[in-house]
Amino acid sequence: MRILAVELHRVAMPLVRPFETSFGRQTARDVLLVRVRTTDGDGWGECVAMADPVYSSEYVDGSEAVIRHYLAPALLAAQEVGAESVAGLLGFVVGHRMAKAAVETAVLDAQTRAEGISFGEYFGADRDAVDCGVSVGISSSIDELLAEVDGYVGEGYRRIKLKIKPGWDIEPVRAVRELIGELPLQVDANTAYTRADIEHLGRLDEFGLLLIEQPFVEEDILTHIVLSAAIETPVCLDESIVNAEVALDAIERGATSVVNIKAGRVGGYLEAVRVHDVCAELGVPVWCGGMLETGVGRAANVALAAMANFTLPGDTSGSSRYFAEDLTEPFELVDGRLAVPTGAGSGVDVRADALADWALRPPITLT
Ligand SMILES: CC(=O)N[C@@H](Cc1ccc2ccccc2c1)C(=O)O
Ligand SMILES: [Mg+2]
């Protein structure tokens, strides 16, 4: 098919409650959505980049600029485009994986809608619903944290993940472990620790955690190797895993024994499937990470999380974890699970009224 136009939409999505991590406090999402208009129909992709470059080097204005000036022109100039050829067409741009992922996903959506197959069928999903976990931010007090966690347990979430940082780790984890009993529990440091903290992090072993996620900076594979050898709790990488080759290297070197897969972080769902396959071959379980996506990105994540080696609950929470109203029909937990959309493509549709109401500015149309 040929790309006739690429539309860049920016919407403001207020969060139902602040979300605090070791790198900052979010109260809203400034979301970039890409719609491609092709000879075979339309498709949508969500860019997971945050407003500021504090989780990764990408940020939403940067993603928009690189799509506008490099990625969209490359696709518009191509005579024939398919999801499987997008990465090659965009390879001349270094990095900008979240921007590339949004564009590739929009093409994949248009292509699979035209073919009448769902993302789940395209990825090779092996189930029709996925177990859901929830990511809980840093709170202003232990009591406030416990009230929030208690609510999620009541909603049926099958796994709790706590954001931690130096000064907010052992005590909150102890309190939550006491509250939730044997319910699976894990922590995410978002790179906030250093090698000097290894002994301190070993104190988490008493809580029987599923994993500790990305304690050290993205580039520092070595210190994750040292930590893995020093503590019982399995080490899981997130920010570090930028593609399947890095996943293979990190696993082979003993830096990680569980992998958080995020399509946006690795450049798209096709690379995410490759990361899944590499981990499956090595017997390393994976789970689907989250970037506070709207229903557009959430739909694709749920389909990805239905692949065989996604054996741990992901951060594929219900829409209401983040948004009072979603851009699509809301994703709602049933028995701690989300159903994999069965419609063609992503299986969800962007609500035109919400898009118009929450638009930060008129869409940019590139032809
Ligand atoms: C669900 C979860 O913990 N996600 C990320 C961190 C994160 C936190 C805050 C965010 C705010 C706006 C956009 C993306 C964000 C991602 C993680 O696993 O490391
Ligand atoms: Mg993480």
CATH topology of the largest domain: TIM Barrel
Give the neighbour order of strands across the main sheet: 5-6-7-8-9-10-11
Helix content: 25-40%
Number of continuous helical runs: 13
Number of domains: 2
Strands, count? 13
Classified by CATH, the class of the largest domain is: Alpha Beta
| Coarse structural class | alpha/beta
The geometry reads as globular
Provide mean pLDDT, rounded: 98
CATH superfamily of the largest domain: Enolase-like C-terminal domain
Query: What is the second-level CATH architecture of the largest domain?
Result: Alpha-Beta Barrel
Order of helices and strands: EEEHHHHEEHEHEHEHEHEHHEHEHE
Beta-strand percentage range:
15-25%
- The low-pLDDT segments are none
Largest sheet: 7 strands, parallel
Distance between the termini: 15 Å
Rg, nearest Å:
20 Å
Q: How would you explain this protein's 3D organization?
A:
With about 375 residues, the chain is an alpha/beta fold. The protein folds into two domains: about 5-115 and about 350-365, 2-Layer Sandwich (Enolase-like, domain 1), CATH 3.30.390.10; about 120-340, Enolase-like C-terminal domain (TIM Barrel). The chain is built from 13 helices and 13 strands. Helix 1 (about 60-75) packs across helix 3 (about 95-115), helix 2 runs antiparallel to helix 3 and helix 9 runs parallel beside helix 11. The model has no long low-confidence stretch (mean pLDDT about 100). N-acetyl naphthylalanine binds next to strand 1 and strand 2.
